[in-house]
Design brief:
The chain is mainly beta. Helix content is about 15%, strand content about 55%. It folds into two domains: about 45 residues; about 250 residues, TolB, C-terminal domain (Neuraminidase), CATH 2.120.10.30. The protein contains one helix and 25 strands. It comes from Candidatus Accumulibacter contiguus.
């Protein structure tokens, strides 16, 4: 009988110790999870940008928080937008000499720029707001949009796309007649639009992770899918350029003229506008790191 009592006492004495051991183990595992998660997030944050073989990049401008859209005017000045909402958005002008000045203030998420009719067209993603036209130091409202993000122009028309959850539109504006035409509706987070030199029109739906080519008969062609938050588009003689607007490990892609998809840069954080400077040379706004990159194809002898 005494032995049974002693056994029960040992069990009762051991129970708090076992409970504490399990709690300590749980706390240790939780702490380890936090450390591993923190390490993973830090690795994601500092994951470097890498260029494909035959390409290189350098930091063109740094220290530009919320940098988004880029465009050049007829004088070669570079326009840079800071995508801030609630009329805090800004448009800067960087002259060929390198001097920087404010061109437009009081914008709401200016997320699209394009050279247009001897000026710069400006989109505002921050609500039901007009697309503006900056020319001769003045701004003029072209048409009313709803969360307009991407802009493109073929020299005659201005194309725009709305970033809305399921009811966005692809638009075409004729500055001569002032007529705004809806080319496509019901889009999910439309962000990018581009017109190629041959007249083909492309657009992205970030919500559906794809790029499509617009067709007048309504049967738009799926060009790319399963992308990581496809955002901005630009089309030139080299092909269709696509940036991914993901916060980590985004890419700069080129769908070349042969139909081959090339990854030019990896490790971007929220890639935005691509602006061509010359064949094989372009600027890229990287919002997540607050900077602009200059991307360039290496000469054949250097590859």
């Amino acid at each position: 009988m005494q032995a049974d009592v002693d056994d029960r006492r040992r069990i009762n004495n051991d129970a708090p110790s076992a409970l504490w051991s399990r709690r300590a183990q749980g706390l240790w595992l939780a702490a380890l999870g936090v450390v591993l998660l923190g390490g993973f997030l830090a690795w994601q944050h500092f994951y470097p940008v890498t260029a494909a073989d035959g390409w290189t990049y350098r930091v063109y401008l740094d220290g530009i928080p919320q940098v988004s859209a880029l465009a050049k005017d007829r004088d070669g000045a570079l326009y840079i937008s800071k995508e801030l909402g609630n009329e805090r958005g800004l448009l800067f002008r960087r002259a060929a000499s390198g001097s920087l000045s404010q061109a437009v203030v009081g914008l709401s998420k200016p997320d699209g720029l394009v050279a247009f009719h001897d000026g710069i067209a400006i989109a505002q993603e921050g609500g039901d707001l007009p697309v503006l036209w900056l020319h001769d130091g003045q701004t003029e409202a072209l048409f009313q949009g709803r969360s307009v993000e991407g802009l493109a122009s073929d020299g005659r028309y201005l194309y725009a796309i709305e970033d809305r959850p399921g009811d966005g539109r692809l638009l075409r504006f004729d500055p001569l007649t002032r007529v705004l035409t809806v080319l496509r509706s019901g889009l999910s987070e439309g962000e990018g639009v581009a017109v190629c030199p041959d007249g083909r029109l492309f657009y992205t739906e970030k919500g559906k992770r794809w790029v499509k080519r617009w067709q007048a008969d309504g049967a738009d062609v799926l060009v790319l899918e399963q992308l990581n938050a496809p955002g901005f588009l630009m089309c030139n003689e080299e092909g269709l350029w696509i940036t991914e607007d993901a916060t980590h490990r985004a890419r700069l892609l080129l769908l070349d003229r042969t139909g081959s998809l090339q990854t030019i840069l990896r490790g971007l954080r929220s890639g935005q506008t691509v602006l061509p400077l010359a064949p094989g040379r372009l600027l890229l706004a990287e919002q997540g790191r607050g900077r602009i990159l200059e991307v360039e194809r290496l000469p054949a002898a250097s590859r």
